Amino acid sequence: MLLLKQATIYDTSSKFHLQKMDVLLDKGKILKVRSRIRKEQRMKLVSSDNLCVSPGWLDIGTFNGEPGLEYREDLESLRMAAANGGFCKIAAFPTTLPTIDTKGQLNFLINLTNGHIVEFLPIAALTKERKGREIAELVDLHHQGAVAFSDGTSHNLSHDQLLRALLYLKSFKGLAIYSANNEKNIQLNEGPISVQVGLDGSPEFIETQNIKSAIAQSSYSDARLLIHNLSVSTTLRDRDQQNISYSIPCMNLIFEDKDIIDFDINLKVDPPLRDSTHRKQLCRSVNNGQVNIITSNHSPLSPEEKDQPYGLSKPGASTIDLAFSALNTFCSEIKLERLVYCLSEGPHNVLDLPYSSIKEGEKACLTLFDPDYEFFSDKSHIKSKSKNSPFLGKSMRGLVLGIINGNKQQFNSNLKRPV
Q1: How many CB atoms neighbour CB 38 within 10 A?
Q2: Which of 91, 168, 298, 305 is deepest in the core (most CB within 10 A)?
Q3: How far apart are CA 319 and CA 384, in angstroms?
């Protein structure tokens, strides 16, 4: 038995939302939720100065390199990093070699990931080999267990092919995930900073136009669409489409293009960091409920790919381990309640997947965290294979204490285990 002592519950579907309660877990389920539960000898105690608990977090669009790109991240290292960052579930992009675009490839991934504390929810490719030419066997992939469909950050998907895919997906209410920033040589945002440092900038209007086109295609096809990793705020001003959802990467809520002035390669990401106006508006869109998903945008890279002069360094950052801590520390504009919702309930709702609410009798799929825990981040806080993180060497406030998924538990290795 595990007793979570005086934990603040973050779960909008629970009657205990924002209340401090004792939560007793047994045999992978929530046995009791009470204002006070007396500790018995057979119970292990979990406590912290400001212990909080929410439904298990879910990250959408995470990079997984197995098979084919294991040198960047394999399934084992990704599981460890995700659990360390508080994620009970991951919906990874099909950016493997070979691509997850057939029933055989999808079944291979499902078999590899079954039975672990971190659940893998497979996203299959929209087009074969993610080349943007031929639509994949979407219906078969759906029946095999794909939770959504995307070509990830591939820059090959044309608007015509996206429309064809949406028309297919409508037949079974499938979800397409579309990355609107399709520039191939990303350096940084186009603006005064790009002029100052002398590098080609990525114009925000290209992403804006791509989003508007995708929204029009979703409206025409009456199909579900997630605009993934939004970095511009322009299209949020007139958003009223029922089938459209948005996600925002954590980096674009924390940093701005001016932070790149010293050529920090770990701030070179896809989509690029925009200016303060966009960042602040994106934060407001999270607080007001226009956006209900925050992603880690975890994109680990090898030293050979990342440790280059800024202009040659590949875009991407290893973020999943410390995404919550960084958001809680450096993005004070976002309320904690909304932050937790966008990591837990929001992603489940957009993927149309059930989640375990904090109620008696429910399966225990929980993320435990302390938003007031202070620490200094170093490489011991990164379980990912890649250490290309902009969050290292920082004073942080807010730490994931552990995750619980059924009978499986994993607690932060930097903390004392339950006693």
Answers
A1: 8
A2: 298
A3: 9
CB-based contact 125:149 (threshold 8 Å)? yes
pTM: 0.96
Please give the pLDDT value at position 341. 98
Scanning the structure block, which residue is given the tokens 């046995």? Answer: 31
pLDDT (0 to 100) of residue 308:
95
- pLDDT number for residue 186: 83
List strand residue ranges (DSSP E) for 184-332, in order: 188-189, 201-202, 224-228, 244-249, 293-295
SS3 state at 257: helix
Question: According to the model, what pLDDT value does residue 180 have?
Answer: 87
- Please name the residues in contact with 206: beta carbons below 8 A apart, sequence gap of 6 or more: 181, 182, 183
Q: How many CA atoms lie within 13 A of 297 on its CB side?
A: 30
- Tokens found for residue 386: 């890649």
Which residues of the chain, if any, have pLDDT below 50?
none
Residues in CB range of 79: below 8 A, 6 or more apart: 116, 117, 118
Helix (H, G, I), strand (E, B) or coil at 109: helix
- Give the C-alpha separation, 321 to 324, whole Å: 8
Q: What is the pLDDT of residues 353-381, one digit of tens each?
A: 999 999 999 999 999 999 999 999 999 99
Question: Coil, strand, or helix at residue 12?
Answer: coil
Torsions phi, psi of 163, nearest 5?
-65, -45
